[in-house]
């Protein structure tokens, strides 16, 4: 994998948003999941920065980004993402989001459709659909909230919890390196902001907007994902006109660190075809 360096910069505003950026060209923004941060994308930045201005953010209340007062409106993430595009002078950007990041990408598409060039939606879902059980992740809303925040309400330390849970959403034969990368990111959680994020995201849905997605879209899923299994991908394929699907064999919920070469090949093949749609 190619070597690169990236610069860490801050997007001003309230809260400040911390991003790692590398490369030149059309803007591509990577959005991490609910238990991660921009470190999750450090195996993508070297490859993607050869073709794009590749940016990996820390969402508000994560990593190097600021915490904030009050409760979270899930669409606050989209408003922050608009600031990121403005910071880089991009009218449109390619958006790649995993898990919660994929839900932010879908929300951004609903709120700012004219600013999206393409979507790469990785191991994510739009929300619950009472008419089709395939739409939902494997946990109920209540189970998801309880499993995510209960340890912290009981006083758990993020570093210790990350060590205990590292790799649990990956395929059974994940590598020690993949596990360590997941642990490193999860160890940096801001507990209060994380709890607010879990509560705000739990019941958030953009199911009704799937039919309105009219940009090139790649659904990229691990074939052994225990949280958003391939049935979710099938549901989304049926509801997003013209969507493409790439399954990463032997990967769970985090194919970008479990199988980075396969992830990069699939995403880059798609994005390079549509590179000039962003500007």
Keywords:
eight-stranded mixed beta sheet; single chain; alpha/beta; 279 residues
In words, what does this structure look like?
Helix 4 (141-153) packs antiparallel against helix 7. 47% of the residues are buried. This protein has 279 residues and is an alpha/beta fold. An eight-stranded mixed beta sheet has the order 1-2-4-3-5-6-7-8, sandwiched between helices. It starts with 6 loop residues before the first strand and ends in a 6-residue tail after the last helix. The protein has helices at residues 45-48, 76-87, 100-111, 141-153, 158-165, 176-186, 191-201, 230-239, 255-258, 260-273, and strands at 7-11, 17-22, 27-31, 53-57, 93-98, 116-122, 217-222, 244-248. Helix content is 35%, strand content 16%.
List the helices and strands and how they pair.
Elements: E1 7-11, E2 17-22, E3 27-31, H1 45-48, E4 53-57, H2 76-87, E5 93-98, H3 100-111, E6 116-122, H4 141-153, H5 158-165, H6 176-186, H7 191-201, E7 217-222, H8 230-239, E8 244-248, H9 255-258, H10 260-273
Parallel strand pairs: 3-4, 3-5, 5-6, 6-7, 7-8
Antiparallel strand pairs: 1-2, 2-4
Helix pairs in contact: 2-3, 4-7, 5-6
Task: Give a short synopsis of this structure.
By secondary structure, this protein is of the alpha/beta class.
Shape, please?
globular
Summarize the amount of helix as a percent range: 25-40%
Strand order of the largest sheet: 1-2-4-3-5-6-7-8
| Helix and strand run | EEEHEHEHEHHHHEHEHH
Uncertain segments of ≥5 residues (pLDDT<50)? none
For the biggest sheet, the summary is: 8 strands, mixed
Number of separate helices: 10
SS content category: alpha/beta
User: For the terminal residues, how far apart are their CA atoms?
Assistant: 27 Å
Strand content: 15-25%
Beta-strand segment tally: 8
Query: Whole-number radius of gyration?
Result: 17 Å
Q: Look at the structure and give the mean pLDDT.
A: 94
């Amino acid at each position: 994998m190619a070597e690169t360096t990236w610069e860490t910069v801050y997007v001003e505003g309230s809260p400040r948003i911390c991003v790692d950026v590398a490369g030149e060209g059309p803007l591509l923004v990577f959005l991490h999941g609910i238990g991660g941060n921009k470190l999750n994308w450090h195996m993508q930045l070297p490859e993607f920065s050869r073709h794009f201005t590749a940016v990996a953010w820390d969402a508000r209340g994560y990593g190097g980004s600021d915490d904030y007062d009050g409760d979270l409106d899930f669409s606050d993430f989209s408003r922050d993402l608009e600031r990121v595009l403005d910071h880089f002078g991009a009218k449109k950007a390619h958006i790649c989001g995993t898990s919660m990041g994929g839900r932010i990408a879908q929300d951004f598409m609903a709120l700012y459709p004219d600013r999206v060039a393409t979507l790469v939606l990785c191991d994510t879902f739009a929300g619950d659909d009472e008419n089709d059980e395939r739409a939902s992740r494997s946990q109920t809303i209540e189970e998801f909230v309880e499993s995510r925040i209960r340890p912290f309400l009981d006083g758990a330390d993020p570093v210790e919890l990350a060590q205990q849970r590292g790799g649990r959403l990956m395929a059974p034969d994940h590598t020690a390196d993949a596990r360590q990368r997941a642990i490193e990111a999860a160890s940096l959680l801001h507990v209060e902001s994380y709890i607010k994020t879990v509560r705000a995201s739990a019941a958030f849905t953009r199911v009704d907007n799937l039919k309105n997605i009219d940009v090139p879209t790649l659904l990229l899923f691990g074939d052994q994902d225990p949280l958003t299994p391939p049935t979710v991908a099938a549901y989304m394929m049926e509801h997003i006109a013209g969507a493409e699907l790439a399954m990463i064999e032997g990967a769970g919920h985090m194919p970008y660190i479990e199988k980075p070469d396969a992830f990069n090949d699939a995403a880059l093949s798609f994005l390079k075809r549509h590179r000039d749609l962003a500007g």
